[in-house]
Amino acid sequence: MQFTSIAFILFFAIVFGLYWLSQKNLKLQNIVLLLASYIFYAYWDWRFLALLIGTSAMAYFLGIKIGENEGKKKRIFLNLGLILAIGTLFYFKYFNFFIDSFADLFNIKNTLTLSIILPLGISFYTFRILSYFLDIKNKKLKPETDVLVFFNYVAFFPSMTSGPIDKGGLLLPQLKKERIFTLENGSDAARQILLGVFKKLVVANSITPITQDIFHNYDHLSGSTVAFGLVLFLFEIYADFSGYSDMAIGFAKLLGFKTTKNFAFPLFAQNIAEFWRKWHISLTSWLTEYVFTPLIIEFRDYGKKGLIAAIILNFVLIGAWHGARFTFIFFGLLHGVYYIPLILKDKLNKKKKISKPIPTFQELGNILLTMIMVCFAFVLFVAPTLTDAFGMYARIFSLSLFSVPLFIKMKILGLIGILIVIDWLNKDQEHGLEISRYHPFIRRTVYICLIFMIMYFGVFGNGNFIYEQF
Which residues cross the membrane (predicted)? Predict the structure, then answer.
């Protein structure tokens, strides 16, 4: 049930009505929300609903035990929770990868590979549970004793399939208090959903056939065409993923919830550190808090070398989080290596604000260089194997890089240009269509234009989002 499907529109309309009709009874409202989340999840594959419920029950019980105990017992329950959560994720996402890799390494005939289906959203709800355990252990959060509230936290359907990864400290308190629907929040949510639909159906889906054709046939294409495909992929994955996040945040807002911001206009980042502060924010902030910070404390005696090691390890984990492929690991490794010049020059945490209304040549150069670095690393993201990645790099660095690329379509470039303009004009706002500050005539014109482009240019056949596979 994709956000852009008729089935979801009908589903959400029913849920929205029942949910707000139950407003005066918080428990009943949470029951409606939980049932909606389970129906949404079962629509994808009902067989994994038992896994979601069982994982929630395990986390609920162990969370209480972690909070009740101290010392050795506390560590036992914490470690048990971490092992069960990570172990479940490992089995579904990485088991075959490690078995196949071990067999290849020692040239052993592999008879253990299983037909394992990756449960929808498992990476996202597992990270919610892990942060919940760790926050209780660090006394940032008290164990949740309300079963209904906690199960809703794990299964919250607007952000189930591709995030954002909300921490317990943000979502749990909202589930325990009365939610109020206001016209202002509803209007803002509708604007953000509209932008998300435009990004996905018009921009991302229009680009997808071109990038798929380029990446599947890279060995028969010029280096310039492969490089052009990577640039297109940058806009495709940004429009696809940030479009999903806009819709998820918007639907959550319609239900009275504030969720984690996931993108902050990363296309205008002036270095790689700023890019990751603006891209997939809920994942990078999660790893910063629970992985990078402990590593920094552990490596604090090694100065800049320790900082480099911590960042590289952190980004290797970011790469591995995306899936069981060596290319993802090297994707993360390369981004970690990108940080080294910033660390050596003490520019890691320096934030640069872009000039208004037009960037300077230096700022524009920084932005272009950052995007080139991101596109260069995307080879490892889109290539299914390291052999394919090296093949794509070989094509890019051949003399054919200086030829005219194929697949240039003015419609696509125009749609990308519109996306860039929308982001640029609202780069200091919470999201790209937060335009309440403009005259009503301008706002209505923008809405009409976006709706027209969705109806005229929208590609409705592909409702799948890229990050659902992670």
Answer: 6-21, 50-67, 76-92, 112-134, 306-322, 328-344, 364-386, 406-425, 446-467
